[in-house]
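User: If only I could read backbone structure tokens as easily as an amino acid sequence. Those tokens are not coordinates but codes from a learned vocabulary of shapes. Could you go through the record with me and say what the backbone is doing? Here is the record:
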Amino acid sequence: MMMKMTSLLSVAVLVFLACGGAEGRNMRRLDALEYTAMNCRAHSASLTDFGAVGDGQTSNTKAFKAAVDQLSKFADDGGVQLYVPAGKWLTGSFSLVSHFTLYLHRDAVLLASQDMTEWPALKPLPSYGRGRDAAAGRYQSLIFGTNLTDVIVTGDNGTIDGQGAFWWQKFHGGKLKYTRPYLIEFMFSDTIQISNLTLLNSPSWNVHPVYSSNILVQRITILAPVKSPNTDGINPDSCTNVRIEDCYIVSGDDCVAVKSGWDEYGIAFGMPTQQLIIRRLTCISPYSATIALGSEMSGGIRDVRAEDIVAINTESGIRIKTAVGRGAYIKDIYVKKMTMHTMKWAFKMDGDYKSHPDNKYDPNALPVIQNINYRDMVAENVSVAARFNGIAGDKFTGICMANVTLGMTAKHKKYPWTCTDVQGMTSGVTPPPCDSLPDQGPEKISACDFPANSLPIDEVQLKQCSYSMSYF
């Protein structure tokens, strides 16, 4: 929607008062911004209105915080947008508010500060019980928010650069008191859009919605060195109704990691990840998975639908990670139309992923792995077709594979399939799978299909937003 001049003036007056006056300064006019979003905004201002300097050296943490604080006064009056123009904007962590859009110009770069005083420390996530790098907790993510409604982080493919080498070195040296920050994290929030951005060199995970619902992540490019530690791409964690689509990810860890809490802490918190769509994803990660389910899955994972996935030079295509002590379940997983090029494992299930937050986990908390469906997949240059290792006395059941062709490398393993403590069926799978996944004949080639119903997040209609911005 086109922003009204009265709204512009109200923001300008607010900025004028906050900055102590602007005598002698001229109004500048920006070209109109146009983009699609869950919601458009009635008010908008530029980061430069709050004293920010885009030279890549001046800290703008205070400017971001001042901008969010001042604009929040308009959040309930049609919502607000903070525009980040071209430039290199050095900043530490800052938090957003409800009914807020952060928009990055195509030549805007947010540079994550390497001054650790600009990164507040938070308590561990309640479903984890401790930080993942260090027990004490975690640094707040670069762009953060909690208990929010209607938040959008988008742009014209602007860049967020985490300058992660600074953090990776500290991690490898054991010099971190807290877990490394992520680039974007929203907690206990509803209606979130993260789109049209490039994310570079995150200190750890890139995008982490947690305890949240109604989330759209689309047209995100994520780039990190393939040996960088824990630079997962997109990690929906105890979230409901999520859509991830049209993303390109090169990372040092799983491209998409679906999570829901860790051992006894995740069991007690009891919030699953469910109703998740992943589509049109391209992944490169030679040491990790294209899509991983777990290993932190103690709140449960169910109803995941992935399709039109491309994996290139990636360790595994679809991987399930769990262990004794996790409890809960991973069930009703559907994957189709996946193409894989140069893989160590096409498919992998681990029932012995033994990373635990502490020694207080319940050895009787056994996970249920059930109704896992793979259909219409093709791969080339694969070293191992699958390694499926369930848990003794707790078999993984309902594995269904149909119309799957895996082209093996010339030096592939002598036995391309390894299966223990699993049950299921196959139809039209090459090379022939293990005995615990018997071929049911060509009449079952249409098995393992997606559910017919659509999920609510697929019903979300984006709006065409446009702004003609003037600012001091």
